[in-house]
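the three lines:
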Amino acid sequence: MKRRRSLLFVPGNNPGMVANAGVFGADGVIFDLEDAVAQDQKDGARILVRNALAVLPMKGCERIVRINSMDRPIWLEDLEAVVAGGADSIMLPKAQSRAEMEELDRALSDAEKRVGREEGALDVIALVETPTGVENSGDIATARRVSGMLLGAEDLTAALGVPRTVDGEEISYARGRMVMAAKAAGIDAIDTPFTDTDDMEGLVKDVLFARSIGFDGKALISPRHVEAVNRAFTPTDGEMEWARAVVRALEEGERAGKGAVSVGGKMVDAPVAARARKTLAMRGEA
Amino acid sequence: MKILRMAVAGSMESNDAMVTVEPSNELSVEIESVVKAQFGDAIERSVMEVLKNLSVDSCTLSVKDRGALDCTLRARVETALLRGCEGVR
Amino acid sequence: MRDKMIGSLKEALKVMGLADGMTLSFHHHLRNGDAVLNGTLDAAFSLGVSGLTVAASSIFPVHAPLVEHIRKGTVSRLEVNYMSGPVADFVSRGGIAEPVIFRTHGGRPRSIESGELPIDIAVVAAPSADGRGNLTGTKGPSACGSLGYAMADARCAKRVLAVTDNPVDRVAPASIDQSLVDAVVTVDSIGDPAGIVSGTTRMPRDPVALVMARYAAMAIKASGLLADGVSFQTGAGGASLAAASYLRDMMRDLGVVGSFGMGGITSHMVRFLREGLVKRLYDVQCFDLEAVKSIAEDERHVEVSASLYASPGTKGPLVDDLDVVILGATEIDLDFNVNVHTDSSGRIIGGSGGHSDTAAGAKLAVVVAPLVRSRLPIVVDRVTTVSTPGDTVDLLVTERGIAVNPRRPELREALDRAGLPVMSIRELREIALSITGVPRSSRPKGRTVGIVEYRDGSLIDRISEVS
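prediction for all of em together
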């Protein structure tokens, strides 16, 4: 199971950071060709990221590239370079509609054919950051290749004309809607980055909340956040104990031919069993 | 490909290289590097390869290398050459 | 008793009997703010002497004028523990005929006390001094805290000259007392406070340094040494400071109380003391104002001589009681030999300092270094210069993995069990080369410009002239 607990943004035109992107323990790295790159350096970043993808060791780390949005013609150049470089996934910013996702799918297939990669080799993570995108998140989540959706709260709140707060009340609808759409489609729901790089306490609170409402992971803008985010999205020892107890009870119940079992005085029904198995799987226990 | 104007790519930050190209009737390459003793030849080889891949026969090209990895160096050379040829931006 | 105050450096050197070919010693507590070495040599030059040996514990960029004194013949030999900047460049390029002798922080007092390095005049920069020659580093406009590196010099030199910019009525207790000091000179300034200590030593924000630091701290925890009574030394380098900070959190979480912290002391080590995580600090050198303030006010923060700190010639230096030391490296080779003297081109950029002393003494010597620095792999087939022998180094921690010295199979097992990314040093070398490409060896082949002495005085390597 490909985990996406932590997806770390790395500016695409910074050779030092690009070279070291794989050492921070993030499940995935998002090389950014969009907002982190100045307008007059887009070409330089694209070529740098293409070259780096091809040669740098990233042991087990998903290599994602955020290309420029489809309202800018250079998105196709980005796409071509990134497919050629060997990226695992594309992140499309300002994803708004099913039609766009289909256009991206076709462009990817063309590019894959041209550079000799297998058709469908690349996944897509849709970055939903507009009111239209949020409202269409169900359509986006079920499009071909889309394996994850990331909420972009900064752009979204700007479009809403409301301030972004630490508590995040203003994005609670968007969070809920996205999680629901992602889960309905069976893809990853990834939460918006926590932008105050020095507020570790705030980060932990934010990420635990995201997990509590169903997110699978979080995007990050600072390497220093990786450890805390990974930890928050990993079952605690206590949760693992509980999950093992549930699975044990189920197995014993089955052997004894009992229809229903309970753990700690609580009935283990199908959803509880599923949750326990998922918990174990998150730390690599079958 | 013909270099028609002066163009620069990269930066003087550590781990990067600054590459400058200028139109010229012949090919000349100048390399300055913090790791010249260890990688001077490798840098020159990479520069020549990128020139060849883009079919650039003549230009003046200078590299100021601050410890760029080979993939970075090649990217900066390619970017400078593409910027220096007609029709690009 | 007669007052020992003398009007000027020049006069004092005359009174001390300065003559051609003598050895003058200096200490480096004023670091890159030191004005005493330059001032003394200027005075010596004006007296017309030549052929002096400068035995300085360290030489920094601020000592650039020493190059001129070598060119003019005032100085003809250097014996140091560390050198960086213009003097080091000058030596590397063959600027001085006699090879420079490099010692360790423990080897220097050993050689002074054994008579191997006889000193004619020890020049002691004293942030405060009284007219009888009692000296301290803890007070005054140029306060530097500990005077640990000057103590063997003061004890063993034929003559001891203190130089101060803060004459006071009485210094008590003194770091170096009047029984050892022949004369005291007052000058306008012994140094630039901005170069002597920083306000506080800043924690690094470099995320790669933080990754290495976290691995280092986790490895130390996995080694089992992080228990009550643990003692350690961490340097003032970025990754070391960060590792110390992770260790502090771990000790707090585990409820562990250590015995002592040692070495060059920073505000971060002072926090260990104040938070009750160690019982003592043994201080040969202060790196920041917090450390200076602490050594002046807190009796648990103890000034120690370099001899007590690290000399293998004493009946038991403190390094032998160390559990853990965190060290740096410019290169480390497949046999775990470490180079901190030269860069990969063989140019002198540092020196052992306490590196090999603490590695030899500590139960766990951890080298922390980025696997790739400016396209150069840190792991090499053979180091350009051997500063610290590989059989005293236990661990190499990089951002891409940890290598355990094969001499410590039980340690490797412990780290594996803790889930740390352990691999062989050869594998680390391969990863590094896959990133950088294979560098051409640029080992210099010129004449010998430096001799590296191990802490016991044996020859461990030579440094060659670079073109």
